Amino acid sequence: MGYRIFDHTADLGVEVTGATLEKLYAGAAFALFDLLTDLSSVRAGRSREFDVLGENPADLLVNFLREILYAWNGEGFLMKSCFIRQITPTRLRAVLRGEGFDPARHRILKEIKAVTYHQSSVLETPEGGWVARVVFDV
Amino acid sequence: MRVPGLLYTSEKLMKGMGADEGPRQVANVAHLPGIVKGSLAMPDMHWGYGFPIGGVAAFDLDEGIVSPGGVGYDINCGCRLMTTSLRLPDVRERIPALVTALFQNVPSGVGSRGPLKLSPKEERQVLIEGAAWAVRQGWGTEADLEATEDGGAMAGADPEKVSDRALLRGKEQLGTLGSGNHFLEIEVVEEIFDEQAAAAFGLEPEQICVLIHSGSRGFGYQVCDDYLAQMVKHAGEIGIDLPDRQLACARLNSTRGRDYLAAMACAANYAWANRQMLMHRTRETFEKALGMGPRELGMRLLYDVCHNIAKIETLPVDGKEIRLCVHRKGATRAFPPGHPDVPPAYRKVGQPVLIPGDMGTGSYVLAGTKGAFTETFGSTCHGAGRVMSRTQATKSCRGRSIPREMAERGVIVMASGRGTLQEEIPEAYKNLDDVVEVVHRAGLSRKVAKLRTLGCIKG
């Protein structure tokens, strides 16, 4: 599960790679929370299911990340790990394991305020793997 | 493109743009239905989502659209400037103590909670009444409202158009500063360019002032997010192909468009209530730290402006007065002398315009002009604009102590977020003098005063 940051003047661009679509979307979820917090301090105590729709894979990616970001921003849920149960170009089902925010144990590294549609993409690579790009408003 | 794109800029600023996609975005905006006269960009322009930051566009109410990307995620991100009776010689040695006190008393940074936990009923009132709600709770006075754009509350706010998610995020964040480029800083009036205007605004040389830059927090972000998602999903309703998904919009003359404006107004009002509370907390902190009463401190709101908003305004287009929906995304209203929306005390001079800079620089106070009214839908720039990405800025800070560098420049900075100061270094921003010079020379707003930062708190 790899990701790298690409340059954007005011915000944060992330490029994620994965051998399969499942690994790609799980990798994107990982990237978001890895930027947000020190994942080594997060325990996988609770699990939450997500069922997300999209017009196409890029839209699906943005919608998925928006939902899990809201789980943090709105409900204080920090993700430790993500498993994509099922995925099609327009729908995914995921299980996230993690826990609620505890200021005594968790350190927030960066505030991620929104997932934008800006330059969002999900593309197959010549080698048969996948690469996705998304920009976070920080 | 339906209309021309028009960039207000200078050679120096254009050279500094590099690969920034701002100009392309100005061209994209010009494709939107019902756009009037031109797609504009102010000199602090840089690329954003759909619309560039520094973008101004006005739309016909019947044929035109409203776009959350033309307002920004942080609805009613804006500034307020307060003056005081203090002069630099009186408080020079007390600046570090004041900054520390502000840092302790003003909640800032990720996850910070405000002093209030709003009940659903209270939250509804905040969303409708804006700054007036805060004043009624004891966070300031009526005089503060007169010195706020729109009196601190936009009409047409409807909490029913706001999602439960946004309401949840807004519950505990009222009265917090935020993070990133938001700040609360102590400044001193360094130079006065227009004595008559400065006198009308109540600005004097060496006067200690406070500038607050903050917005609608998670609430506004969620409102933008919610409506963007809806508009992207229903993009087919517009009837045209959008050059960029982030330009997702709705017809002004549609339920979706009207709902967005009603929710946007709620977020705008939340931000005004927020800045009102932050100002009051600042007053209390100064009074306590300096052992002064309110009369002696004399902290007065000069003005409060928003720079991420869409407004329905009556403006001259080709000699006729037309009602338009003006989008200002990283742009500030700059109404001229004589305009009824300018507070009576300032009406001869024009609306005060507050332009914040990076944390090492300070800010400008400008005055709105007839030029802006006729040329740019009553708009001007909003700040310095970034030139360096956050990762670039952070990289360039390796081995440097930013607090120490700032202290050597005479600025005491304190930030709660790790990495904030590195991302916000002065070099990451355009030169504010260059930006202001363009709007001044283009006749969009007149320079009134320049203020220098003495101390700054950030999230």
**Gap from first CA to last CA of chain B:** 40 Å
Q: Can you summarize the main beta sheet of chain B?
A: 8 strands, mixed
- Helical percentage of chain B: 25-40%
Under CATH, the topology of chain A can be stated as Archease, Possible Chaperone, Chain: A, domain 1
Give unreliable regions of chain B as ranges: none
The coarse silhouette of chain A is globular
**Beta fraction of the residues of chain A?**
35-45%
- The first-level CATH class of chain A is given as Alpha Beta
Q: What is the H/E string of chain A?
A: EEHEHEEEEE
Helix content of chain A: 10-25%
The overall average pLDDT of chain A, rounded, is 94
**Largest interface, chains and sizes:** A-B, 30 and 39 residues
In the CATH scheme, what's the topology name of chain B? Answer: tRNA-splicing ligase RtcB
Integer average pLDDT of chain B: 95
Oligomer: heterodimer
Name the poorly predicted regions of chain A: none
What coarse outline of chain B follows from CA principal-axis ratios?
Answer: globular
Strands of chain A, total number: 8
Total number of helical segments of chain A?
2
